[in-house]
Amino acid sequence: MFIQLDVSWMDHPFPRSRFRISSLEQIRVMRELGLKSVRHFPARSAALAEAPSETPERTEGPSMGEASEPAAAPVESAKLADADLRAIFKATQQRCSRSYQEATSVYSTVYSGVQEAPHEMSEQARALTQACVTQLVEQGPCAVHLLPDALGQRGAAHAVNVMVLALLLGRALGMEREDLCHLGLSALLHDLGKVALPVHIGEPGAALNPSDMQRYQEHVGLSVDLGQRMGLSSDVLIAIAQHHEMADGSGFPLRLVGEDLSRYGQILALVNRYDRLCNPLNGESALTPHEALARLFAVRRECFEAAVLGAFIRMMGVYPPGSLVQLADGQYGLVVVVDASHSLRPCVLLYEPAVPSSEAPLINLAQGGGPSILRSLKRAQLPRDALDYLLPQPRVQYFFERAISAPDGGGRA
Question: Bridge partners of 362?
């Protein structure tokens, strides 16, 4: 039966509100939600049952301007073997981790040296962002990868996360190389002014009192001041100044509204907020990436420009990397790779207690033939051993690599 749930996307755990019922587990979940009825579409049910080769129904995300993905490509006869996929995934993780660690190392150098040598640090930051843009542009379609937690400063990890996500989003919005370089530089340096703040204000677990919070908000102006000393362009400085502004006027420091924000500023404000929901400051509880995306859409939607938010959701998928999920066959998993061309069918690392976590099985749902994702899970919904197995690190960190579905068929995970 093809059905529709007449409740908000936030009020149910399914990837979309319209779908074909395929298991008793889905019925059980709907009953647990307290639903007394669902809307049934007999014509669609018949079409799915009798003519599966016809054009599939349009998939629905969280009603965010009706973000959708293309119909699934036919399953190739020669899929990557499990061992090959695992080997490719490991090699890709190693490349991404090296790139990420190099980026955090450069940022740490810039952060510690900017007050004494602003122009020299500016050159290092430019070189890093230009290298990342070149990698992004020349690789073709890229996927977002979840990385193991790396040692290093949290501030550096946040800066690189924001830069990576901003560049990917800028690319998804059609930005060219020069714009991407400006966007990447503003994303990398947006929090540079925190170097002048007392250490405790930037500590992740520190709950700030009102005076500390006012002091914290001063980092925006301090970042702009340092950017001016570094010789950054006006476009970059404006984006840095706007990274805490919201389209509905609820941001700081100037309470700007949507039409006052630059495109760079709109992107930076969104990805900065997303990363802070996943990797919070000030004693807040971390959300899974799925929960963070849901909150941005369902609770904070008016804070962001609609086209930018819609593109971000399409890029990250309903289950962004780092989301904890349960598959239709009951298995627990961790989403580790999302390719925007198959955003509802990511790569998932499976909980298999019989094997070490370093050898956990990996399934590419875009290849078809395997179980689908039934629902997302909060950390508290997983057994402790499953959580420690799948997500032992406290932080969510991202980098990009060529997508599995890239045209040359090389299978890069």
Answer: 349
For residues 400, 405, 410 and 413, what is the CA-based torsion angle, rounded to 10 degrees?
40
- 258 token code pair: 């949507």
Instruction: Output the pLDDT for position 296.
Output: 94
Alpha helices in 15-150 (DSSP H): 24-32, 42-50, 82-113, 118-139
The two three-digit tokens of residue 407, written as one number: 């045209």
Report the pLDDT value the prediction gives residue 52, as an integer from 0 to 100: 39
CB-based contacts of 71: which residues, under 8 Å, 6+ apart? 55, 56
Q: Please list the residue range(s) of the chain that carry CATH number 1.10.3210.10.
A: 82-316
Please, are residues 31 and 85 in contact by the beta-carbon 8 Å criterion? no
Whether domain 82-316 has CATH 3.40.50.300: the reply is no
Where is 321: in which H helix or E strand? none
The DSSP 8-state label assigned to residue 187 in this structure reads: H
Q: pLDDT tens, 77-91?
A: 334 556 677 888 888
On the 0-12 / 13-18 / 19+ scale of CB atoms within 10 A, 66 is: exposed
| Burial class of residue 299, CB neighbours in 10 A (0-12, 13-18, 19+) | exposed
- Residue numbers of the chain with a pLDDT score lower than 50: 47-79, 405-413
Residue 11 and residue 142: Cα distance in Å, rounded?
31
Pairing of β 324-327 and β 373-377: antiparallel
Burial 303-342 (b: 16+ CB within 10 A, else e): bbbeebbbbbbbbbbbbbbbbbbbbeeebbbbbbbbbbbb
- Dist CA 169 CA 180 (whole Å): 10
Give residues with Cβ within 8 angstroms of 321, minimum separation 6. Answer: 144, 145, 146, 289, 335, 336, 337, 338, 346, 396, 398
Residues in Cβ contact with 156 at an 8 Å cutoff, skipping those fewer than 6 apart? 104, 105, 107, 108, 111
Spatial contact of 333 and 349, defined as CB atoms under 8 Å apart: yes
- Beta-strand runs (E) in 340-393: 347-350, 362-364, 373-377
